[in-house]
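U., I forgot to send this yesterday:
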Amino acid sequence: MTKQEAIAAHRKMWRWIADETERRECVVIKTDYLDAMGIPEKDVPHAGCYCCDYGLRSGGVGNCCASCPIKWPGGCCVGDGLYGQWANTYEHNNWIAAAEIARRIAELPEREDVR
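Result:
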């Protein structure tokens, strides 16, 4: 998968998560997307994330964050980052916030320093 393909898959997944969360009025998660798209287990990206998968395959040995093609404000794996905020909405079934954060995640800018 190229960098552009990983970013496109990332955006498609998070937009779908946001749309489905609003449609269902409950928090929808990454595995829901992968199941709905019929992604076989062997093709599921690392951590259910196309950017993590790309990062590991492009040299981020043991640390996909170093080669992530997306700019995550504050990093994606930290508890108070956007992903952590989104994950917290699941624990509290705050679907309105989940959809809003998922849309923000979908539109995060590309990192120019990662090839």
